[in-house]
Write a structure and sequence with these properties.
Order of helices and strands of chain A: EEEHEEHEHHHEHEHEEHH
Strand order of the largest sheet of chain A: 6-7-8-3-9-10
Distance between the termini of chain A: 44 Å
Shape of chain A: globular
Radius of gyration of chain B: 25 Å
Order of helices and strands of chain B: HHHEEEEHEHEHEEEHEHEHEEEHHHHHH
Largest sheet of chain B: 6 strands, mixed
CATH superfamily of the largest domain in chain B: Periplasmic binding protein-like II
Strand content of chain A: 15-25%
CATH architecture of the largest domain in chain B: 3-Layer(aba) Sandwich
Chains: A alpha/beta (247), B alpha/beta (373), C alpha+beta (393), D mainly alpha (399)
Largest sheet of chain A: 6 strands, mixed
Number of helices of chain A: 9
Number of helices of chain B: 15
Helix content of chain B: 40-55%
CATH class of the largest domain in chain B: Alpha Beta
Number of strands of chain B: 14
Distance between the termini of chain B: 91 Å
Number of strands of chain A: 10
Oligomer: heterotetramer
Structural class of chain A: alpha/beta
Radius of gyration of chain A: 18 Å
Largest interface: B-C, 66 and 72 residues
Helix content of chain A: 25-40%
C-alpha cells in the first residue's frame, strides 16, 4: 500500500452564503508529491487549500489527510493540523515574539517538547532557511523575504508531513521572491509533500510533479508541468497561461 | 443626508423649549387627588408585616459565640457618635454600646462599631448585620411596628428645635415665612418640619442635605435662614459655629425626640438585656455608684437594692441570661449615666448640653429606673 | 454517501465540535440560570422573612417629604411617583445644561490644547492634568462648600451686569414670562420651523442636483430666525416680558433662580467633563491627517471650504463616539448630586427608599431609569454612526 | 511627523528668548491678548491659592488626624504590618524601575518620594522614620535591580504576582484570632488611604481577568455566551457606579442564602469589581478587534488550541495595544472608590467626613477636602506617569 495517497479529496463543496466557492473538487495527493495550484483570483484555489487544514469548513464531500478523515471530530482536526504546515501570503508571524519564540512556541505547547530540544531544532531550521543570525530579532525588524522564511521554518518546526503554501510570494518585493522560492525548492527536493498555490511558473516548471488549474471553484485541468505549459487541453487554461506568462 | 438629522434635532429642541414655556402654570389635575386617596388605603394594606425573625435568646447566643457585640452607630454627630483623632469611637450612643458589651462580656472593648447611614440603619438591624442600633434614633410608632424594631428605654430626651442667626430678627416660626430651612434628609426631623410648618400655614423652602456636616456647613455659610434638628444637635453644633453667640435657638419645641437604642422584634431576652443595661446606668447615678467608688460600694453596701443590683444578693443577672455582676461591670467599666453624660456632653466638653429632661426624676428630670428586684 | 454518514455519526459526542459548541452554551446558560434562580429564591425568602412582597404600588402613596426643587408643583401631599418624576426632571435639567456647557468648554479646551500660544497651551494642559486626576466626588463637594456657599448672603447680594444677582441662596438671572400673545408667537415659531425645514430640503435637493454644497443648515437657521424676529416685532403685544430677580425678605424672588446645589452640581460636572471632552476634540482634530488638508488645498478649495468639507466631517466621525460616552458619563455622574443635596432622581429615590424601606424596588427603578438613558443614547448614536461611517472594505 | 534632516543646521535653532516669545506668545494681536489674559489669570489663581494655603487655612486638623487619613482606625500597634508590605512594594518598584525603566533619571526622584513626603507633611516621628526607611528600601531595590537586571527579572515578576496576597494577608492578619502574633484586624477598622488603596488594588486585580473573559465572551462564536456578555456589559455600563454600590450594600445580603453574611468592605469590593469589569471588557475588546485575522489562522494552522492561541498569541498583543486605555480605566477606578463614602465606608472621603464631625474641627471643609484632593491627585498622576514609562518601554502608544 505504498501508493495510498496522503491526501484524498472527494467531491468537496463549499458555499459562502449563496456563493458556491468550491463545486465538487476531487483529487488525490501522493506522498512526496509537489503540486502547484494556480488559477485566476477568486477561483477558489485558496479556499480549497485552506479546507485541507480546516481553516475553512467544507460543507459536502470528504477530505482524508494521512488516513484521518476531516470531520467535526475535534481530535481529528487537531491531528491533521499538526501533520500539515501552512505558510501564508501575509507571513502572519507573531509580532510580539522573537523569531526563535515564533518557531518554538507550537513545538513546546503542542508537541510538548522541551525548550532545549525545540530551540536546537529551531536553530537547525533557521540555518536551513539561511537566517540563523536573526533568531533573537523581532519579526518587525526583518525584511519580507526573511519573514516568510521564518514562517516556513516555523511550520517545519512542527515536523509536518505536508506543507501548504498559500501564495507565499505574493506580498513580497521582486528581489525577495527568489530567496523564498529557493527555500521552497530545496524543501521540494528534500521529499516533502507540498501543495502550493502560486503563480511562480518558474518554480512550477522546476519542481512541480503536477499542476492543477482552478477556475470558478473547480479543477479545470491538471497534468505535469510539461503538459500544462506545452499542450494545455482547455481553452481557459490556455488563456490564463497566456495572460500570466506574457510579462 | 447627514444634515437632516441636525435640523430634526434642532426642531426637537425648539419643540421642547416651546412646550416648556407653555406649561408655565399647569392647573392641578383633579384626578390626582382622588388617586392619592385610593392609594393611601392600599399602602396601609400592603404595609410590611414583620414576622418574628428570631426567637427568644437567639441574639445573645449569637453574640456570645461571636465573641463581640456589633453595634450600629453614627459617625458624624459630635457628642453622640464620631471618631476621635486616635481612631476611637466616642459619644454617648457609643458609650451605651460599651456598657452593653460590659454587661454581656464584662469587657467594654468587645464591641465592633459599625457606622450605618440613616438610609441603611433599619435594614442593617433587620438583616442581622448589627445586633443593636444605637444611633440617635427617634422612637416612633411606625418604627416600633413596621420597621420591625423595639425601642429600648430612651437614653436621651431631645426635641426638635430651630436655630437662627441672632441678627435675623426671627423670634417665632411664623417669622420664617418665605425663608429657607436647612434640614437633614431621611430623618423624622424632615417630616416634623413639614408637619409643623404646614399646621402653622408657613410657606418655606427646605434645603435638604445628606449629612449633618453639610447641613450645618450650609447654615453657617448663610445658605438658610434657619436650621432645624434636635435641640441637642443645635446646642452642640452652635458651640462650634464661627460665632456661637450670634445664633439663638428659638423657644419652640417642634417635636418630642426620645432617642434610644433599638433592637429587632422577636427576641425578648435581648430586649430585656438592652433595657436593663440602660436602667443600670440610671440606677448607678441614682444610688451614687460611680466607676470610682463601685468597688467600695460592693464591699460595704448595705442597701438591699444596691446589693441586688451589684450582684451581691439574688440572681437578677442570671434571670437576664447574664452574670450576676453585669450592672457592676457596666458601672465599673463605663460609669453611671452621669459619668457617661459628662464625658460626652458635659460642661467640660465643646459639645456641652445642659441636662434638662435628662436628669434623674429626683432632680425634676425624666430618668426613672424600675426597681432592681 | 451512506458510509460517510455512518462514520460521521460515529464521532463520540465529546469530540464533535458541533455538539461541543452547543453543549458549552447549554452548560453556560444553565449556570447563569441556576445562579439567577438561587439569587431570586434567596431574595424571595429574604423578603418573605421581612414580610415584604415585591410591588410598586407603594409609589402611589403620599410621600410626606418636601423637595427643594421641582419642575412642577410638588409638595408633601404629592405621591412618591411624583417625587420620583420631579427627581427625574431635575436629573434631565442638569444633564441638558451639563451637556451644552461642557461641550462648549470642551471644544475651547481642545482647541486651546492645539494652540501655538505657549501660555494658552500650557494653561489648557495644566487644567486637564489637574482635573483628570481628581476624584469627581471631592471636586463636587469642593464646588458646593468652597465656592457657591461662599457667595455673599442675601442681604449683601452682589449684582452683576445684566441683572444677575449672586448670593449663597442662589443666583438669579432675568427670565422671560409669557404674555397673552405667547400662544400666537408659539404658532409663528412653529411656522418658522416649517419654513426652515422647507428651506432645508429645497437646498438639499439643489445640492443633490448640482453637486454643490450650500450651507444648508445655516440658511435653514437664518430662515427660522427671520420668521421668529419678524413675529416678535409684528405682534402687538410682545410675547415675553423680562422678569428680573430681586431680594424679597429673606429670599430671592422673580426671574429664574438657580440654586447653589444645582449650580455646584452642574458647574462641577461641566468643568470635570469638559476636560475629557477637550481631549476627545483634540484627538479628533489631530486624527485628520495633514495629507487631507494638503490634498484639499491642492484641489483649490480655500481654507474655510477645507475646514467645512474635508477636516470637519472627518474629525466629527472620530469625535462622535467618545463624545457620546462622555455625555453618558455626565448623566450617570449626576447621581453624585446626593453629595451636594440636589434632588436628582438618585437622591429622591434614596429618600423614598429611606421612607419606605423598599430597597429592591427603588434600586431597580433607578437602574432602569439610567439604563434607559444609556440605551436610548446608544441606539441614537449607532444610528448616527451608521450614517456617517466610512465605507470601507 | 517625519522631519527632514537639514544639511546645515538651521539658524533659527539658536533662537533667543525674545524670538521664542515673539513666536510663541505674541504671534498676532489676539495671540498677545490671550497671552496677557492667561498670564493674569495664572497670577491671580496662584497668588490667591498661595495666600490661602499659607495664611488662611488651618492645617492642624490634618496634622492631628493624619493617622485617620492614612489608615483609619487600624490599630497603631499593628501598623508595622502595613509598613512591611509597603516596604515590599517600594522594593519591587525600585527593582522594576531599575530593570525596565532603563536608567530613567526620574527613577531615583520617584524613589526618594517617601523621604520628601516625610518632611513635606505633618507626620509623627514614627511614620517619618518608617518613610525614610521606605525611601532607603526603594533605593536598595533599585541598586540591586541595576546590578543584576537579567537575573532578577523572574523573581521581580514573581514578587509582583504575590504582592496582592501578601498585602491582604498582612493587612488582615496572619492568625485567625485577634490575639497572638500579627492578629486578625477586622475590615471595619481598615480606613483612610489604606482602604482606598485596597479597594483600588483588589478592584483592578479582580476586574481585569473578569473583563478579559467578558471581552472574549463578547467576541465568542457561541451566541448564548456572546449575548450574556453583551447584556452584562451594556447593563453595567448603563448605570452609575453609586447605584451598583447601593445594590451591593443593601441588596447583596438579600441575594445570599440565609446565614451568609458578606463583609461590608468585601461588598464594596464586589461592587467596584463588577462595575469596572464591564468597562475593562470594552477596552480589551478594542484591542482584540485590532488583531488581524491572520494571527488566529497562523496559530490554528500550527495546531495551537483555542485557549493556547488566546494566551500566547492574541491576548499579549491585544493587551499591549490597550495599555494606555487600561491604565486610564484603573485611574478612574481609583478615583471612583471615593463613592464608597456615600454608602458609609471610611475610605479617604468617608474619613474626611467623620473628621469633620470632631467637635474641635467643625467647619474646616476646605482644608480637609483640599488635603484629600492632593492625595488623589498625586497618586493618579503618579499612576499615569508610570504607565507612560511602561508604554515607552513596551513600545506602544507611538504611532
Amino acid at each position: 500500500m505504498a501508493d495510498e495517497p496522503i491526501i484524498k479529496v472527494q467531491d468537496v463543496h463549499k458555499w459562502y452564503g449563496n456563493f458556491h466557492a468550491l463545486k465538487g473538487v476531487s483529487m488525490d495527493v501522493q506522498k512526496r508529491e509537489v503540486i502547484v495550484i494556480f488559477g485566476p483570483s477568486g477561483s477558489g484555489k485558496s479556499t480549497f487549500i485552506r479546507t485541507l487544514n480546516r481553516l475553512e469548513e467544507h460543507q459536502r464531500g470528504k477530505i482524508v489527510v494521512d488516513g484521518i478523515e476531516m470531520s467535526h471530530d475535534v481530535r481529528n482536526i487537531e491531528q491533521i493540523r499538526s501533520e500539515t504546515g501552512m505558510v501564508f501570503q501575509q507571513f502572519n508571524l507573531f509580532p510580539h515574539l522573537t523569531v526563535m519564540q515564533n518557531i518554538v512556541l507550537a513545538p513546546i505547547q503542542v508537541r510538548k517538547w522541551t525548550k532545549q530540544k525545540a530551540e536546537e531544532i529551531a536553530m537547525q531550521l533557521l540555518e536551513r532557511v539561511g537566517i540563523p543570525e536573526q533568531a533573537k530579532k523581532f519579526p518587525g525588524q526583518l525584511s519580507g523575504g526573511q519573514q516568510q522564511r521564518v514562517a516556513i521554518a516555523r511550520s517545519l518546526a512542527m515536523q509536518p508531513k505536508i506543507m501548504l503554501f498559500d501564495e507565499p510570494t505574493s506580498a513580497l518585493d521582486p528581489e525577495m521572491i527568489k530567496e523564498v522560492l529557493d527555500v521552497m525548492t530545496e524543501l521540494a527536493k528534500s521529499g516533502m509533500t507540498i501543495l502550493a498555490v502560486t503563480h511562480e511558473m518558474g518554480f512550477a516548471r522546476a519542481v512541480a510533479d503536477r499542476m492543477i488549474f482552478f477556475d470558478k471553484g473547480e479543477i479545470v485541468e491538471q497534468g505535469t508541468p510539461e503538459q500544462i505549459f506545452n499542450s494545455p487541453k482547455e481553452d481557459r487554461t490556455k488563456l490564463f497561461l497566456s495572460q500570466i506568462l506574457r510579462h | 443626508m447627514r444634515k437632516s438629522y441636525s435640523i430634526l434635532a434642532i426642531g426637537a429642541i425648539l419643540a421642547i423649549v416651546l412646550t416648556a414655556c407653555g406649561t408655565a402654570a399647569p392647573a392641578p389635575a383633579p384626578e390626582t387627588v382622588t388617586k392619592v386617596e385610593t392609594v393611601v388605603v392600599e399602602v396601609t394594606s400592603s404595609a410590611p408585616v414583620v414576622v418574628a425573625p428570631t426567637g427568644y435568646g437567639v441574639t445573645l447566643k449569637a453574640v456570645m459565640e461571636r465573641g463581640n457585640l456589633i453595634c450600629g452607630v453614627n459617625s458624624q454627630v459630635p457628642g453622640f457618635g464620631y471618631v476621635d483623632a486616635n481612631g476611637n469611637f466616642a459619644g454617648i450612643d457609643v458609650d451605651y454600646c460599651r456598657a452593653l458589651a460590659a454587661a454581656i462580656f464584662g469587657d467594654p472593648t468587645k464591641v465592633e462599631f459599625r457606622p450605618v447611614t440613616a438610609a441603611e440603619r433599619f435594614t442593617a438591624l433587620q438583616s442581622g448585620e448589627i445586633d443593636i442600633l444605637s444611633r440617635n434614633t427617634t422612637w416612633s410608632l411606625v418604627r416600633d411596628t413596621e420597621l420591625g424594631g423595639n425601642f429600648v428605654h430612651t437614653t436621651f430626651y431631645d426635641g426638635q428645635g430651630m436655630m437662627v442667626p441672632k441678627d435675623s430678627g426671627i423670634a417665632t416660626l411664623q417669622d420664617l415665612e418665605g425663608g429657607t430651612v436647612c434640614v437633614q434628609t431621611g430623618t423624622t426631623t424632615e417630616l416634623n418640619l413639614a408637619d409643623v410648618m404646614a399646621s402653622l400655614g408657613v410657606t418655606y423652602t427646605p434645603a435638604v442635605f445628606e449629612d449633618a456636616d453639610a447641613t450645618f456647613a450650609a447654615y453657617a455659610e448663610g445658605r438658610c435662614d434657619a436650621v432645624t434638628t434636635d435641640k441637642s444637635g443645635l446646642v452642640s453644633r452652635r458651640s462650634v459655629l464661627p460665632d456661637p453667640a450670634n445664633h439663638v435657638i428659638l423657644d419652640v419645641t417642634m417635636s418630642k425626640e426620645p432617642l434610644g437604642p433599638m433592637v429587632r422584634h422577636g427576641d425578648d431576652q435581648w430586649f430585656d438585656i438592652a433595657q436593663w443595661t440602660v436602667f443600670a446606668l440610671f440606677s448607678g447615678e441614682e444610688f451614687g455608684i460611680t466607676s470610682a467608688n463601685v468597688d467600695d460600694m460592693r464591699a460595704s453596701a448595705t442597701a438591699p437594692e444596691v446589693r441586688r443590683m451589684l450582684g451581691l444578693e439574688g440572681d437578677l443577672g442570671l434571670k437576664l441570661g447574664l452574670t450576676n455582676d453585669f450592672a457592676y461591670n457596666v458601672i465599673k467599666m463605663v460609669g453611671n449615666y452621669e459619668e457617661v453624660y459628662n464625658r460626652n456632653l458635659g460642661p467640660d466638653t465643646p459639645t456641652y448640653i445642659p441636662r434638662g429632661y435628662n436628669s434623674l426624676y429626683t432632680d425634676g428630670g425624666l430618668l426613672y429606673s424600675p426597681p432592681f428586684r | 454517501m451512506q458510509l460517510e454518514r455512518k462514520r460521521e455519526t460515529a464521532i463520540p459526542f465529546w469530540r464533535d465540535e458541533r455538539i461541543l459548541k452547543i453543549l458549552g452554551q447549554i452548560v453556560f446558560a444553565l449556570l447563569v440560570l441556576i445562579v439567577g434562580a438561587l439569587i431570586y429564591q434567596n431574595m424571595q425568602a429574604g423578603l418573605a422573612k421581612q414580610g415584604i412582597s415585591l410591588s410598586y404600588s407603594f409609589l402611589n402613596g403620599v410621600s410626606g417629604f418636601d423637595l427643594a426643587e421641582s419642575a412642577f408643583p410638588y409638595d408633601r401631599n404629592s405621591t412618591y411617583w411624583q417625587a420620583f418624576l420631579a427627581g427625574l426632571l431635575n436629573t434631565l435639567s442638569v444633564g441638558v445644561a451639563g451637556i451644552v456647557f461642557s461641550t462648549i468648554l470642551g471644544v475651547i479646551l481642545g482647541v486651546a490644547r492645539l494652540s501655538t500660544n505657549f501660555i494658552v497651551n500650557r494653561l489648557a494642559t495644566f487644567y486637564l492634568e489637574l482635573i483628570r486626576n481628581l476624584s469627581l466626588l471631592v471636586f463636587l463637594i469642593f464646588w458646593y462648600l468652597g465656592v457657591f456657599l461662599k457667595l455673599p448672603r442675601v442681604k449683601d447680594a452682589v449684582v452683576w451686569p445684566g441683572d444677575i444677582i449672586l448670593t449663597n441662596r442662589g443666583v438669579g438671572i432675568p427670565w422671560g414670562i409669557p404674555t397673552a400673545s405667547f400662544p400666537t408667537f408659539r404658532l409663528i415659531l412653529l411656522g418658522g420651523l416649517i419654513v426652515a425645514i422647507i428651506v432645508f430640503f429645497a437646498l438639499r435637493a439643489y445640492s443633490k442636483r448640482t453637486g454643490r454644497a450650500p450651507l444648508t443648515l445655516l440658511w435653514s437657521l437664518l430662515a427660522f430666525a427671520f420668521v421668529a424676529v419678524a413675529g416678535w416685532f409684528l405682534l402687538p403685544v410682545k410675547p415675553l416680558t423680562l422678569d428680573l430677580t430681586f431680594v424679597k425678605g429673606l429670599n430671592l424672588s422673580g426671574g429664574k433662580i438657580l440654586s447653589p446645589e444645582f449650580l455646584a452640581l452642574t458647574s462641577g460636572l461641566v468643568l470635570y467633563t469638559a476636560a475629557f471632552i477637550g481631549e476627545v476634540v483634540r484627538a479628533g482634530i489631530q486624527s485628520v491627517s495633514k495629507g487631507q488638508v494638503e490634498a484639499s488645498r491642492a484641489l483649490g478649495l480655500n481654507s474655510f471650504q477645507t475646514l467645512r468639507l474635508i477636516v470637519f466631517p472627518q474629525a466629527l466621525r472620530v469625535i462622535i463616539p467618545p463624545l457620546t460616552s462622555q455625555y453618558l458619563n455626565l448623566v450617570k455622574n449626576s447621581s453624585l448630586a446626593i453629595a451636594v443635596g440636589y434632588p436628582d432622581v438618585f437622591y429622591v429615590s434614596n429618600t423614598i427608599l429611606n421612607q419606605t424601606g423598599r430597597a429592591v424596588e427603588m434600586i431597580s427603578l433607578v437602574m432602569l431609569t439610567y439604563l434607559m438613558f444609556s440605551l436610548l443614547t446608544s441606539v441614537l448614536m449607532n444610528w448616527y454612526n451608521q450614517r456617517i461611517k466610512l465605507v470601507e472594505r | 511627523m517625519a522631519t527632514i534632516e537639514p544639511a546645515l543646521p538651521p539658524v533659527t535653532e539658536r533662537s533667543n528668548i525674545l524670538r521664542w516669545a515673539r513666536k510663541n506668545l505674541f504671534g498676532s494681536w489676539y495671540d498677545s491678548l490671550l497671552t496677557i489674559l492667561g498670564a493674569w489669570f495664572m497670577y491671580w489663581a496662584l497668588s490667591s491659592l498661595a495666600r490661602w494655603v499659607i495664611t488662611t487655612a488651618e492645617w492642624e486638623v490634618v496634622a492631628v488626624n493624619m493617622r485617620l487619613f492614612m489608615i483609619g482606625q487600624y490599630p497603631l500597634e499593628q501598623a508595622w504590618r502595613l509598613w512591611l508590605w509597603l516596604g515590599f512594594l517600594v522594593f519591587l518598584v525600585g527593582n522594576s524601575l531599575a530593570i525596565w525603566g532603563k536608567g530613567s533619571r526620574y527613577s531615583v526622584a520617584l524613589l526618594l518620594f517617601p523621604a520628601v513626603l516625610a518632611f513635606a507633611f505633618p507626620f509623627g516621628d514614627e511614620p517619618r522614620k518608617w518613610l525614610l526607611i521606605l525611601a532607603v528600601t526603594g533605593l536598595i531595590g533599585w541598586g540591586i535591580g541595576r546590578a543584576r537586571p537579567e537575573v532578577l527579572k523572574r523573581s521581580v515578576i514573581a514578587g509582583w504576582v504575590i504582592s496582592l496576597p501578601v498585602i491582604i494577608l498582612l493587612t488582615r492578619g496572619l492568625s485567625a484570632s485577634e490575639t497572638g502574633f500579627a492578629p486578625f484586624v477586622k475590615t471595619n477598622l481598615w480606613g483612610g488611604l489604606l482602604l482606598t488603596f485596597l479597594l483600588t488594588v483588589v478592584g483592578i486585580m479582580f476586574s481585569f481577568p473578569i473583563g478579559v473573559l467578558l471581552a472574549l465572551g463578547r467576541r465568542s462564536v457561541l451566541p448564548i455566551v456572546r449575548w450574556f456578555s453583551v447584556a452584562y456589559i451594556e447593563l453595567v455600563r448603563g448605570v452609575p457606579l453609586i447605584s451598583i454600590l447601593f445594590m451591593a450594600q443593601l441588596m447583596l445580603p438579600l441575594f445570599l442564602p440565609e446565614g451568609w453574611t458578606v463583609d461590608r468592605v468585601v461588598r464594596a469590593m464586589v461592587g467596584i469589581t463588577l462595575f469596572s469589569a464591564a468597562y475593562l471588557a470594552e477596552n480589551v475588546r478594542g484591542g482584540l478587534q485590532a488583531i488581524p485575522k491572520g494571527q488566529f489562522e497562523a496559530a490554528e494552522a500550527l495546531g495551537l488550541s483555542g485557549a493556547q492561541t488566546m494566551i500566547f498569541i492574541i491576548l499579549p498583543q491585544a493587551l499591549r495595544l490597550v495599555i494606555p486605555i487600561l491604565v486610564g480605566q484603573f485611574i478612574a477606578l481609583f478615583k471612583d472608590t471615593s463613592l464608597v463614602a456615600i454608602v458609609g465606608l471610611f475610605d479617604l472621603v468617608g474619613i474626611a467626613q467623620t473628621v469633620l464631625a470632631q467637635p474641635e474641627f467643625l467647619g474646616l471643609q476646605r482644608e480637609v477636602y483640599a488635603f484629600i484632593s492632593l492625595i488623589f491627585w498625586v497618586l493618579s498622576y503618579g499612576m499615569s506617569y508610570l504607565s507612560q514609562q511602561l508604554e515607552v518601554r513596551l513600545g506602544v502608544g507611538i504611532r
